[in-house]
Amino acid sequence: MTGRLGIDRRSLLTSAALGGATIVGASALGGLDADAAFAAPMPSLDPAVSRSSFIDGRVSRIKGSTLDVVESDGSHRLVQLTNATSVWKLETVTAEAIETGDGLYARGVEMPDGSVAADAVWVNIVNLYVTVRGIERSRLHLSHGRNALVGHIVAKRTTASFRGGALTSDLSQLRIGHHAQVLGAWRPADDSVDIARISVGH
């Protein structure tokens, strides 16, 4: 799942994966937005659950409520979605928004058959450090290392924070040359990113 962006996706949700999880839904663990995915570990709400299982890979097949996920080493893992599974794909969505080919992080409880019953799933989430190279009305041209990247500004979803200030939908302070952190959802079809939040000067 590294792709052209050179993103080490396995390391992105380590903090979330280390937090305890029980099948109560991620909202009970403090939310499912992009910030929550990278938040510090939280203790399990259920003392009977000693640790969470964590799967990251690409969805190769969907059968009912079961996702067949191919991990970076080529192994297959099954992720079971339940009525308590919370799903993030730029925003909180239903399981129907998950598509074959999507990158996926799942946190949950390992079942006796080796599958994981997920309490939280993040689809195509990315955490990138970029430089702004161009600004248009509905998109930003960014560089991530040596790679060019298009970041889509999504109406009523994209927010910005400047120098530690409050989140705002007003991106007028953004300038070419700014170094920024982008949290968002990767688009597998064209390797672009829908921006959830861009932070400058943190």
From TrEMBL:
InterPro entries xrefs: TAT_signal
Protein's UniProt name: Cell wall protein
Species of origin: Streptomyces graminearus
